[in-house]
Specification:
Layout: H1 2-15, H2 17-22, E1 28-34, H3 52-56, E2 62-65, H4 67-70, E3 79-84, E4 95-102, E5 110-112, H5 114-118, H6 126-132, E6 134-142, E7 151-155, E8 164-170, E9 177-185, E10 190-193, E11 195-198, E12 201-205, E13 214-220, E14 223-228, E15 242-247
Parallel strand pairs: 1-5, 2-4
Antiparallel strand pairs: 1-6, 2-5, 3-4, 3-6, 7-8, 7-15, 8-12, 9-10, 9-13, 11-12, 13-14
């Protein structure tokens, strides 16, 4: 088991090599566009599995991101500052978005909600910016800040029987990625790896009975570390319910 964990950490370091570039202080050049939305907010059916959370988080200023930022779902929940590069129409600060979906096209790294896309414009020039459709941008990874929230896990709605457990990870603060989730199996005295189903959703067939202790493999400025939740998932966990991990990532 020890050898397996060492190999896992080595593999993880390879997987997260690309996001390392985004964590620097330098902006990266790219392109961005936007998609149609009846209320200008996010898509509740986004590939991260966030549902309504993905529509409303960050006041609807969210984005689908390219495969290199998506990173097989590890990039779900990452926060970015994005600035467009047309001086007469673009403000200096740009927009701060949360990655909630996968999507790319025309060399873009970001497909914004209309609300997020318009946030890059100078006052009174939003319509001109929308008319371009696709714009050159520069971006950098920035820490996510969720005032008053610890890392939360939601029991997925499909976990409707005790033989299947899926959890959705929410409110990952700071510039951190959740690389893996494990559940402690007391009778075997070992951690069981959950499978990343898609996006930020992890599942396990035949989970242990009773209260469940979870731990998360976190990658961020402090390196790669396992962080165990002080709050166990109760034995009577319910599909659709959310539980506070009591882990504050910064």
């Amino acid at each position: 088991m020890k050898t397996f964990n060492i190999l896992l950490l080595l593999l993880v370091q390879v997987v997260v090599l690309l996001p390392l570039v985004c964590l620097s202080d330098d902006f990266v050049s790219s392109r961005a566009t936007y998609y149609g939305s009846p209320d200008c907010k996010g898509n509740p059916r986004g590939a991260c599995g966030y549902g309504e959370f993905g529509r409303d988080i960050n006041n609807g200023e969210v984005s689908g991101v390219s495969s290199r930022l998506w990173n097989n779902g590890t990039g779900c929940g990452a926060c970015y500052q994005v600035r467009c590069k047309i001086p007469p129409h673009c403000n200096e600060e740009g927009v701060y978005v949360v990655a909630t979906d996968y999507g790319e096209g025309h060399g873009t790294d970001f497909i914004f909600t209309p609300k997020a896309y318009g946030r890059m414009a100078r006052p009174g020039t939003e319509n001109q910016l929308y008319s371009f459709g696709v714009v050159d941008v520069e971006y950098q990874r920035v820490p996510c800040k969720y005032a008053g929230y610890n890392l939360v896990y939601k029991v997925h709605e499909k976990s409707y029987n005790p033989h299947y457990l899926a959890v959705l990870i929410l409110y990952v603060g700071g510039a951190n990625d959740i690389l893996a989730v494990e559940v402690w199996q007391e009778d075997c005295k070992e951690w069981r790896r959950m499978r990343r189903v898609f996006g930020a959703v992890h599942d396990l067939q035949n989970p242990p009975t009773g209260t469940l202790t979870l731990r998360f493999l976190v990658y961020g400025s402090a390196g790669i570390n396992w962080v165990q939740s002080p709050n166990a998932l109760p034995a009577d966990w319910t599909a659709g319910a959310t539980y506070d991990s009591n882990i504050l990532l910064t």
